[in-house]
Amino acid sequence: QVQLVESGGGLVQAGGSLRLSCDASGSIFSFNVMGWYRQAPGRQRELVAIITSGGDSNYAAAVKGRFTISRENAKKPLYLQMNNLKPEDTAVYYCYGRLGLVDYWGQGTQVTVSS
């Protein structure tokens, strides 16, 4: 059974940094695409950053220049380095992975940025 497990969330002051990790297990195949989404209270889940198996990445405009998505290889965790955090970054952050035609999601990790 494929599982994605996030870690690294927490409470941080505005201007601070956090690094989220996502560990994938249960499949001998590599995800075609992995990424991070977030959902704030009362809002829809939105894309934060995404990376392909070839290493190409894309970011939401709101986080470009502050967040970095990375993954060394298929056996390593997926990371999201978040710098210069703002109160509007407060949300539950979800790890996402696409394997073939199937989407997988983690349970989410809370990130709270205080002003």
Secondary structure layout plus pairing:
Layout: E1 3-7, E2 10-13, E3 18-25, E4 33-39, E5 46-52, E6 57-59, E7 67-70, E8 78-82, E9 91-99, E10 102-105, E11 109-114
Parallel strand pairs: 2-11
Antiparallel strand pairs: 1-3, 3-8, 4-5, 4-9, 5-6, 7-8, 9-10, 9-11
Total of DSSP H or I helical runs spanning 4+ residues: 0
| Average pLDDT number | 94
Class from helix and strand fractions: mainly beta
What is the rounded distance between the termini?
Answer: 40 Å
Strand proportion: over 45%
Percent in helix: under 10%
Based on CA inertia axes, which overall geometry fits? globular
**Order of H and E elements:** EEEEEEEEEEE
Give a description of the structure:
The chain is mostly beta strands. It is built from no helices and eleven strands. Strands 2, 4, 5, 6, 9, 10 and 11 form a seven-stranded mixed β-sheet that branches. Strands 1-3-8-7 form a four-stranded antiparallel β-sheet, with no helix packed on it. A hairpin with a 4-residue loop joins strand 5 and strand 6. The chain is globular. It starts with a strand and ends with a strand. The model has no long low-confidence stretch (mean pLDDT 94).
Give the key terms.
single chain, 115 residues, mainly beta, seven-stranded mixed sheet
What's this model, at a glance?
The chain has 115 residues and is mostly beta strands.
